[in-house]
Design a protein that fits this description.
Distance between the termini: 67 Å
Order of helices and strands: HHHHEEHHHEEEHEEHEHEEEEEEHHEE
Radius of gyration: 24 Å
């Protein structure tokens, strides 16, 4: 393939994705030139020549290099999903190497931004007109997918060295079983409906038994009072993040349940890993009362609190999941009420959840997260919370970054054991 790679290099660094990221461009150009010369650089060389950080013999902290390489890979992924979708050449930085590889693009197609707005409207109208049929299809499909993950043979999955991984090491050494709790969506039905042939209703203001009681108490119209449906449904992303989580947990004793099945007894008996959107936190949303973040589900905003409880910054979720959008996800590692561990992964959309689970189950990404926590606190605290900003399109995560890390004293959390 006789090509001038520098033409494609310039196209990448002048793209919208790389605009405003001078350091990312400098790093990419530096790695490109080293690769063309066949001289892969060391981390200390990159630190000195790109980031002007000369390391002494006693200073081997190259965190800045690993973090920026990690972010550069994400920017390239974003670029080739959008502006560079039809580029003839694709640049890749392989994991564990500081070299740029060039390969031919075998997946060229029309860019997603050229899709007709009119077609999108028709798809949306079709969805609205066939909402019940679509919901039933989703319930059946996802139930089957989740069932596969629940009952598949653990021994067939690849091994992962859990004990050495931040966040997960406590689950390996703690003597309790681990319970993976999947956040499922709450459904209701009209009270006079045949329970075996009732149309399911999804009211976004009702996400728990408590919400249902409150709704029926304040609603004076008897014909519009609801009862709890016999079924719930899990989100689109459930099979995808279970696929990432199960190999991590395969050497431990674990079980899986839905949040609609969860109760206080489980919170005492198990280590808990919850994954789901904020609306599905159930009784675990008590943690938010002690968090340094205030999550406003209705306005899709997250506020950062200072030590006095006042708002410092506000981060707003923008865009529809089916289009380009951002999402804000929180990962929290907490002390449970009975010498157990609680890990929460939650966001407004599936996009944030999927990205965070990928970050938490990838050795390289975990190293970056560990370095950032260590850099801020000088150690890895037993309890902490991380706010991520995730950018995606059509529910597919493209890039993410850590916005804020808080140290928590989770021993003060009063878990409701009712």
């Amino acid at each position: 393939m006789d090509l001038d790679y520098k033409i494609y290099l310039q196209k990448v660094i002048k793209s919208e994705v790389f605009s405003g990221s001078a350091k990312a461009c400098d790093l990419f150009v530096y790695l490109f030139e080293c690769s063309m010369q066949g001289t892969p650089p060391k981390e200390s060389q990159i630190a000195a020549e790109v980031f002007n950080r000369n390391l002494s013999e006693n200073d081997q902290d190259t965190t800045i290099v690993r973090v920026n390489i990690h972010n550069l890979r994400k920017k390239l992924k974003h670029y080739y999903l959008t502006e560079g979708l039809n580029d003839e050449v694709v640049f890749i930085i392989p994991t564990g190497r500081y070299m740029v590889e060039m390969t031919k693009n075998t997946t060229q197609q029309k860019p997603t931004e050229n899709i007709s707005t009119e077609i999108s409207k028709k798809v949306l109208l079709s969805y609205l007109n066939n909402r019940n049929a679509l919901i039933y299809f989703i319930v059946i499909f996802l139930s089957g997918a989740v069932s596969y993950f629940l009952f598949c043979d653990k021994q067939k999955l690849p091994s992962t060295n859990l004990n050495k991984m931040i966040i997960w090491r406590d689950f390996a050494t703690n003597n309790k079983k681990t319970l993976v709790v999947v956040g499922d969506y709450y459904f209701v039905q009209l009270p006079d409906s045949d329970i075996y042939n009732a149309p399911l209703v999804r009211d976004f203001s009702i996400n728990s038994d408590e919400d249902l009681v409150k709704y029926n108490t304040t609603n004076t119209d008897q014909t519009k009072k609801y009862s709890k449906a016999r079924y719930s449904y899990t989100g689109y992303a459930t099979p995808f993040y279970l696929k990432e989580l199960i190999p991590i947990l395969q050497d431990t004793d674990y079980e899986i349940c839905l949040m609609s099945q969860f109760n206080a007894k489980y919170l005492m008996q198990y280590n808990i890993i919850f994954v789901g959107i904020y609306k599905t936190l159930g009784m675990l949303n008590l943690y938010l009362n002690y968090s340094g973040f205030y999550v406003d589900i209705r306005s899709a905003r997250i506020s950062v609190k200072d030590n006095a409880g006042k708002t410092e910054n506000v981060y707003a979720q923008i865009g529809l999941a089916e289009e380009f959008h951002n999402d804000y996800a929180i990962v929290s590692k907490l002390a449970g009420p009975n010498n157990n561990i609680v890990l929460l992964v939650s966001s407004f959309h599936d996009t944030g959840i999927v990205d965070c689970v990928k970050e938490l189950t990838n050795h390289e990404s975990l190293k970056v997260i560990s370095d950032e926590i260590q850099s801020k606190f000088g150690k890895i605290p037993s309890s902490f919370e991380i706010l991520f900003k995730v950018v995606g399109v059509n529910r597919i995560d493209i890039k993410s970054k850590i916005v804020r890390i808080n140290n928590l004293d989770s021993t003060n959390i009063f878990w409701d054991m009712k």
